[in-house]
Amino acid sequence: MSKKIVVIGMGYVGIPAAALFADVEGFNVVGIQRRSKRSGWKIDWLNEGKNPIGGDEPGLSELIEKTVKEKTFRVTDDFSECKDAEVILIDVQTPTDKNGIPHYESLKEVSKKVGKNMQKGVMVVIESTVAPGTTNYIVKPILEESSGMKAGRDYSLVFSYERVMVGRLLKNLIYLPRIVGGIDEDSKKRGVELYKNIVKGKIYPTDTLTAETAKVVENTYRDVNIAFANEIALICESLGVDVFQVRELVNTLPNDPSNPSSNPVRNMLFPGAGVGGHCLPKDPWLLKYGLDTYGNFKVEPNIILKSRELNMFMPVHTANLIEEGLKQAGKKIKNSKITLLGVAFLENSDDTRNTPTKDLYEILKDKGAKPILHDPYVRDFEIQFTNDIDEAIVNSDVIVTVTKHKDYYNIDLNKIKNKMRTKVIVDGRNIFNKEKCERIGFIYKGIGKPH
Hints:
By secondary structure, this protein is of the alpha/beta class. It has helices spanning 14-22, 41-47, 60-69, 105-117, 134-147, 169-175, 185-195, 208-239, 243-250, 283-294, 302-328, 356-366, 389-393, 413-419, 434-440; strands at residues 3-8, 27-32, 73-76, 87-90, 123-126, 156-159, 178-182, 203-207, 337-341, 370-374, 385-386, 398-401, 424-427, 443-446. It folds into two domains: 3-201, NAD(P)-binding Rossmann-like Domain (Rossmann fold); 240-451, Rossmann fold (3-Layer(aba) Sandwich). The protein contains 15 helices and 14 strands. Strand 7, helix 7 (185-195) and strand 8 (203-207) form a beta-alpha-beta unit. It is globular and about 70 Å long.
C-alpha cells in the first residue's frame, strides 16, 4: 500500500518537494492549490505534466512529467484529500506588510482546513517561513481546536524549512543539509525519517522554535552582508573607485581550513540596485516580530534593521543615478522614457516576488518619468511589461539594468544606441563595461562605480 503525502501550496517550494516525494517508490503525492484567479491555472497545468515555474530549473520539468505520467503526482483544490494522508506539508506564503508585520491569513486558513480533515496519527509539517514561535503559538492551537486532537499525542507536528533558490530548486532540496524541528521527540524522529527519502545532505534534528529561528537568521545574515556590500558601493562611488575591483581585492584572502580559528578568508558579496525575493526582504522582520512577540526581554536589533533600511534604499539611489545621467545629457527626468531591464528579482528566473524593480518603477513614476519594464522570462506581473526588447528600447532616454539576466549580456550596444533618444546607461548589476560604454558614446552611471 502506498504512503500518501499531501502538499499544500503549489509554489516554488511545494512543487519541487511534491515532485521529489512522488518519485520515491511507494509514495503517492497529492498537491493542493487554490483555484484563485492568479494561481488556479497551475492545477490543470501540473495535471498535464507541465512545469508552471519559468526560467532555468534543471530537471524539474522532466520530474513533473515523469511523476504525473506514473500517476504518483496529481493536483486538486479539494482539502478532503487530507483525510487519509499520512503526511501533510504546508507550503503557503507568509508575507509581511510595510511595517514588517506578518500576514498569516493563508497559513491560518490552511491550518484550519487541515485540522478539519486530518486523521489521527498524521504528521503535519510546516515548511513555510514563519516568525519564531509561530508553529507552537499559532499553528498548533488552530490544528488542535479544528481537529479536536492533541499535538504530540494524536498527531505529530514539525517545522522543517526549505533552502530553495530559484534556478536550483531540486539541487538545493536534495543536497543541502536539512533542519527538522519537532514539538516532541517522536515528531522530530518522524520528520527526520520522512526527509531521508529525498535529502542526500545531512539532516539536523532540533526543536521547532530553534528551527524557526535558524531559518530567519540564515536569511537575515545574507541580507546584512548584502547591505555591507551596498554601503561599500556607496562609499566607493563617493571616493571615486570601483567597488567591484575593491571586492575582488578583498576576496583574495584565502581559505585556510587548517586553522579555522584564525582563517583570513573574506567573501564580500555583490552590491546592486536592490534586494528582492520571498525571503530576504521579509525574514529580518519575521525575526524581529518573533522577538517582540515571544521574547522574554527587550532587544533592539539595530544592525539588522539598519541593514534592511539600506537595502530598501538602493532603488532610491538607482533613481538618483538616473537623474544624474539625464542631467549630464541636458535632459530632465519628467516625461523621459526609462527602460528597466528585468522584472524578476533573480537572474534567469520568472520569480517577481518583492522585486526591487517595482519600487524603482514607482519612484520614477512619482518623479514624472515614463518607465517601461522588460523581462524575457516573466509571464505575469501586476505592472504592465513587455517581452519585446526593441519595444522597450526604441526612443528610450535611459536603460537601467535591474536584473542580471544572461540575455542582457548579449545586448549589442552599438545597435541599441541608434534606437535610443538619449544615450544614458545606469548599470545596477555590473553587466556592462564602463569604459566601453563611454567609448561608444553613452553616459554611464553604475552602482559602486566612479562618477
